[in-house]
Amino acid sequence: MEQKDLTIILVHGAWGDGSHWQYIIPSLTKAGYKVRSVQNPLTSLQDDIDKTKDLIDAQDGKVLLVGHSYGGAVISGAGHHDKVVGLVYIAAFAPDAGDSLGSLLGRRESPGGASIYPDSKGFLWIKYDEFKSAFCQDLDEEKALVMSLSQKPIHGQCFGDVAGEPAWKKLPSWYQISLQDRMIPAETEKEMAERLEPKKIISLDAGHASLASHSEEVTQLILEAAASV
């Protein structure tokens, strides 16, 4: 299949890495797109934006950014790169200038928050035996187990860092809401989604890890966005 002139860069969120996109990458590749999945350090919002921009730099031609969860804050910053032509948010933060993720989470209580704990170096973890119920309650036991035991912690600073002017104010965007999300409340996702005035909003009866539990629907949204940029 002839490769299309667009690279789709997938940006993971907290407590995960680029392999969180494993259920989506094959379908995007089969559709003819060049796909890359970033590996961010999760050490600060700026660190992660910079690492994502490094991957954008390495691509030829146009780039569509897709962010899950915390990755939405990353693409909102990295989207200012001149190669980026669109943004897709998957159960993701979409901060405005002056927002922090902590302030967005502070709007209403999220049940999964009770499972988060810090280590001695300021990194945040999800309790291993509560990971499935907090993060991916609609995944099967084995997939949830792997996601739990391979989790990548995020530094608490990422939730305190204040976002700059977001790229979604100048680029077309798409948003997927997870109606059963226990990490970012669905109502908060809805508020952020509507603020974007996106090309399309879809709502799925999914937990936070919709990129794994509802990969077909998420893939279709990404493909729709890719075809229109």
Order of strands, main sheet, comes to 2-1-3-4-8-9
Number of helices: 10
CATH topology: Rossmann fold
**Oligomer designation:** single chain
Alpha-carbon distance between the two ends: 20 Å
Order of helices and strands: EHEHEHEHEEHHEHEHEHH
Mean pLDDT: 97
Helix content: 25-40%
Taken from the alpha-carbon principal axes, the silhouette is globular
Structural class: alpha/beta
CATH architecture: 3-Layer(aba) Sandwich
Strand count, sense and closure of the main sheet? 6 strands, parallel
CATH top level is: Alpha Beta
Number of strands: 9
CATH superfamily: Alpha/Beta hydrolase fold, catalytic domain
Low-confidence parts: none
In what range is the share of β-strand residues? 15-25%
C-alpha-based Rg, rounded: 16 Å
Q: How many structural units, i.e. domains?
A: 1
Keywords:
3-stranded antiparallel sheet; 229 residues; alpha/beta; 10 helices; 9 strands; Rossmann fold; single chain
Characterization of this structure:
α2 packs across α3 (71-78). This protein has a single domain, classed as 3-Layer(aba) Sandwich (Rossmann fold), CATH 3.40.50.1820. It has 229 residues and is α/β, with parallel strands linked by helices. The two termini are 20 Å apart. Helix content is 34%, strand content 19%. It is globular, with a radius of gyration of 16 Å. The strands form two sheets. A six-stranded parallel β-sheet has the order 2-1-3-4-8-9, with helices on both faces. A three-stranded antiparallel β-sheet has the order 5-6-7. GO terms for molecular function: hydrolase activity. Residues 8-219 form the AB hydrolase-1 domain. InterPro entries: AB_hydrolase_1, AB_hydrolase_fold, Sec-Metab_Biosynth_Hydrolase. Keywords: Hydrolase. Pfam families: Abhydrolase_6.
